[in-house]
User: Fold this.
Amino acid sequence: MRYIFIHGLGQNASSWEKTISFMEKTTQVSHLDLFDLLKDKRPTYNNLYLAFSEYMEGFSEPVTLLGLSLGAVLALNYTIEHPEKIQSLVLMAPQYKMPKLLLKFQNVIFRFMPKSIFQKLGSSKNDFILLTSSMMELDFSKDLTRIQCNTLVLCGEKDKANRRAAKMVAEQIPKAELQTVMGAGHEINVDAPEILASILNEFLINIEGETIIS
Assistant:
């Protein structure tokens, strides 16, 4: 089974490396860089989602998507529109309806951050602000119950901003379970990679077992 890791905003593909290093099965793992997918396109959410959808066309068999924050939004969006392509789903610090006030506050913070920080992530300050601004109207509230695959929803113990949304996502998706990652904040893959890997190992092994039985 192919596992595709999708990083959050302010991260890149390398943000998953420690987590993957602790996992038991890593031969079928992909951890893409979202800004590389965009190439020369404007960094709006719609363009990013279309680029991600094109990337997913390269896989003929159903896959498992594992997304954090922005990555979780993309994974959620894609699973709703292409359920036949998804074997299972892991959503970390997910949002199903974009918190506008939080995004606006995040954009204010971006404006005061040095340009060098964004350059290290392969993008620019204006690109980050444009991307977050273009996400404000996203709302998957009415679509969560349509997701029928096994789903693991994770939220860091210290991630108060996403706790309520994670709980709601887990309650609305029929085959979902919610777990709290102890000691972690929003960036679970950075704060607690070994604990996260242990949780993922257990979930993915169980899913593979169900696939073999069925």
Remarks:
- The mean pLDDT is 88.
- The chain has ten helices and six strands.
- The two ends are 15 Å apart (CA to CA).
